[in-house]
Amino acid sequence: MAILPDNTQLLDASGRALSSLLAVNRLEQAEKEQIYLRLLPERLINVLALSTNSLCNNSGEQLVKIIAPDGLSLVRIEARSKPDNGVVVFFLELSDTQFHQLELSFCIIRDPNAPRYAVDVDEAGQNNWFASHGRNIPEELRAMRAGLFPNQTHHGLQMFASFFPLLERFADSMGIQMIVAEPLSYDNAIRYEKYGFDYLRGRRLMLEIDREFQPGGRYFLRLNGSSPFRMPGMERTVSGRSWAIHDGIMDVPWDEVEIYYMIGAPAKISTFPGREEEKR
């Protein structure tokens, strides 16, 4: 049962209640596509000039692909600026969990008109899987100096704020009370805090990071100019800390941080209360 104001239970065309992605994926392709299109922010629809309730733009070109196989409890939505070889402007992956939660696995939003920074490949041009298989230092330097966070290939569209309420209402419409996620970087975790997420695992780590970036802390002392990603003053911003962590300034790799959001009851967590606001 939905709990958000003016929200209703998600139903299929015959009036049956849908309580999971697995249930939605059993529907005919056209019906489940119409359900999943509810997750596209209005601004994205305008940016791509999509026809109403359609995967195509006004010229009839298909820009949105929805992968939601019958029998699987996941959905992947990909929207490109052009058919086939355009920039992936919006990428979303969701899945059911065994505890009747909704897992936000990935959400990537890019400005298709922004310059590309090849931080997603190593210096030989091979996919580096979020820098876990090598880094592209020259591209990372370009990206950092352009104001991007680690692993960002393009500037974003400042669209997550309009997307997340759609996700919350979608989860609520299936009677789901919790959204879970695993932030891939420090800046992701801080950003999720802003939207009301709390920590299943990793809150102690986040507080430790804040403490050790304070004057005299061990991470603060390692901001000694030994690399462009470890410059004095980087402790004051989310971006600076995130690049330093990406560069390996911590004693252990960034890992095992899990967060959750309770539908209709956002948390008020801030593990970096003294940060300087950044112009982006």
Can you offer a commentary on this structure?
With 280 residues, the protein is α+β, with helices and mostly antiparallel strands. It has one domain (21-210, 254-262): Aminopeptidase (3-Layer(aba) Sandwich). It is built from 9 helices and 7 strands. A 7-stranded mixed sheet has the order 1-2-3-4-5-7-6. It is globular. The two termini are 39 Å apart.
| Stretches with pLDDT under 50, minimum 5 residues | none
Overall tally of domains = 1
Order of helices and strands: HHHEEEEHHEHEHHHE
Report mean pLDDT, rounded to a whole number.
Answer: 95
Radius of gyration over alpha carbons? 20 Å
Name of the CATH superfamily: Gcn5-related N-acetyltransferase (GNAT)
Number of strands: 7
Helix content: 25-40%
Read across the widest sheet, the strand sequence of neighbours is: 1-2-3-4-5-7-6
- Structural class determined from secondary elements: alpha+beta
Strand % is: 5-15%
First-to-last CA distance: 39 Å
Layout of strands and helices, then pairs:
Layout: H1 21-25, H2 29-36, H3 42-47, E1 64-67, E2 74-80, E3 88-96, E4 102-109, H4 137-145, H5 160-173, E5 178-181, H6 186-194, E6 198-201, H7 203-212, H8 218-222, H9 238-246, E7 258-262
Parallel strand pairs: 4-5
Antiparallel strand pairs: 1-2, 2-3, 3-4, 5-7, 6-7
Question: What is this structure, in a nutshell?
Answer:
With 280 residues, the chain is of the alpha+beta class. It has a single domain (21-210, 254-262), classed as Aminopeptidase (3-Layer(aba) Sandwich). 27% of the residues lie in helices and 15% in strands.
